[in-house]
Amino acid sequence: MGAKGNGLTSMKNMEKELLCPVCQEMYKQPLVLPCTHNVCQACAREVLGQQGYIGHGGDPSSEPTSPASTPSTRSPRLSRRTLPKPDRLDRLLKSGFGTYPGRKRGALHPQVIMFPCPACQGDVELGERGLAGLFRNLTLERVVERYRQSVSVGGAILCQLCKPPPLEATKGCTECRATFCNECFKLFHPWGTQKAQHEPTLPTLSFRPKGLMCPDHKEEVTHYCKTCQRLVCQLCRVRRTHSGHKITPVLSAYQALKDKLTKSLTYILGNQDTVQTQICELEEAVRHTEVSGQQAKEEVSQLVRGLGAVLEEKRASLLQAIEECQQERLARLSAQIQEHRSLLDGSGLVGYAQEVLKETDQPCFVQAAKQLHNRIARATEALQTFRPAASSSFRHCQLDVGREMKLLTELNFLRVPEAPVIDTQRTFAYDQIFLCWRLPPHSPPAWHYTVEFRRTDVPAQPGPTRWQRREEVRGTSALLENPDTGSVYVLRVRGCNKAGYGEYSEDVHLHTPPAPVLHFFLDGRWGASRERLAISKDQRAVRSVPGLPLLLAADRLLTGCHLSVDVVLGDVAVTQGRSYWACAVDPASYLVKVGVGLESKLQESFQGAPDVISPRYDPDSGHDSGAEDATVEASPPFAFLTIGMGKILLGSGANSNAGLTGRDGPTAGCTVPLPPRLGICLDYERGRVSFLDAVSFRGLLECPLDCSGPVCPAFCFIGGGAVQLQEPVGTKPERKVTIGGFAKLD
């Protein structure tokens, strides 16, 4: 009884899985949509009818129509549905739209029937055949039947055709797919008709086909197309639709899916403690959300009340100021009124003056009239230049609250910063990694940032991905010191403010140089002509000006002209280990050679650099890459990459690495576009030099080099050109973030 009770409880708990998303009742003949959701067949027909599709609600099972599935008897829920109006159907048919709105009969393009799935809230394409091309979910029907039996244990099966109240069913008909009482069975199986030959069965709630049938060919499905993820029959296999698809027997698909489902279910059932723990965490999160939400409401209310108190205080002070100004003006106007009233005949100052004029004693008159005359003079002047003592306007007391109203209108919750945007033009890796970013235009400001990075070329450790990070990085750039050479780093950034942390930026991958970066400056003391070469003050850039000799060479090529090669060396020589440096060559340069060579050999060449255009120049003078000693396996003393007019010349074999003044090999060499920056990697012990694209670190050329002595960088110019050494990142003043000091992020 305990096991049976638990089974009933589990069946009752899954009721929500058995409800149709349209009618919210138990599934009845459910169909499987292309999005893998289910919907009742009658509900699907209704939805298509509401969308205006006519004639595409065919029964996928292609079974005889059941009396129990007619609109009047199938289910009471159909009485609540609104079917398409007959006048609308007639109007559509008469106008030539017999299939669906927008497509006339005989249209060239096949129809596209879209079904709005109520579960995923998306439109799914049903194909040309509409509902007739969908499979019935017979497994779901069986589950619904078992559920009905579990919730009504011992209950009788009622007749589906009786008028309410229905009688208990005594018979069932597989052909009609309905249960009947004795009277209804006779009524729907009249004697002398084909239905009279139907064999009655015991009453049941389950009437379904013996097997799943192909909706296209009405044959039992036997295979599963992995490409289309659809069951197919034998005829479907030979159709062009599944040509080249991976098709497997349905038994194999059944076993594979059953194993996967069993394995997943076993894992879930074996981790019930984890599920319960997570449920407890979610319940705690619900309680915390309720408490936090209430606290947030109280905080907002308190802040708004505070704003109201400040506004009320400000209102009182402004009204007090207006009141004081008003009283002052009234007092001044009242005094002016009194003065003017004294000027009336027989009153005030005028009456007093009239009485004084009656005085006959001259000394006494003079004594009294002198003061009175001053007052009368002022009154006369005031009368002639009359103006109110105070203005009656209070325009100076008007408030401009436009800015404040805008601020109050825009008053909203503080948002976290949006995901920063990595500036890929300024972010690069050289001796150190320089990372630069910015916030989107309308993003809330960030107080500080968190920079996270990790290497991608190391074996993955079990568990979650571990990032190295640095908190509270100020500004919008960071300098990552001491990166590992020859590695690939992935970096990301996120901002933080009072509202919390924002989203991470998109990951950016950076390749570090294959060897430690060599820091050096340009040294123009050897082989550099000050007339044709201009070295910058910081000694990191050089420009070649062709001058008159090149112009003469262009004008007198057939008669010969003297044109020298200008060479600039680095002020540092390499005697061990591996070194790397990068430079940018002006794409408009006529001919530039970038590379390395033995310091002694380079200095010998500087003592008398030959003329490359002069008829006296011997191409096999011994200063090239050993072209005259091709039979002797000796490494050349120079290794150069030739650049001209935005192209790189890549030769074949040793000849491709011609020396300071030699030829660049055979004409069979190919050219590649010049990258923004070139990288040179020198392996002194191995005697090898590699030329790379310094942006993508794609290899361009690798060649041998004689490393029997100190080796230094060299740059050669023939005609106009310019070279800029890449500046070390460490010289920038941006914030430094030491890689070794990063904490581990679980």
Automatic annotation (TrEMBL):
Domain spans labelled Fibronectin type-III: 416-515
Annotated SUPFAM superfamilies: B-box zinc-binding domain, Concanavalin A-like lectins/glucanases, Fibronectin type III, RING/U-box
Keyword DNA-binding listed: no
Keyword Metal-binding: yes
Residue ranges of domain B box-type in the record: 209-250
Annotated PROSITE patterns: B302_SPRY, COS, FN3, ZF_BBOX, ZF_RING_1
Domain B30.2/SPRY as annotated: residue spans: 500-734
InterPro entries linked: B30.2/SPRY, B30.2/SPRY_sf, ConA-like_dom_sf, COS_domain, E3_ligase_FN3/SPRY, FN3_dom, FN3_sf, Ig-like_fold
Region entry Disordered, spans: 54-86, 610-630
Keywords associated with the record: Cell projection, Coiled coil, Cytoplasm, Cytoskeleton, Metal-binding, Phosphoprotein, Repeat, Zinc, Zinc-finger
Name listed for the protein in its UniProt record: Tripartite motif-containing protein 46
Taxon lineage: Eukaryota, Metazoa, Chordata, Craniata, Vertebrata
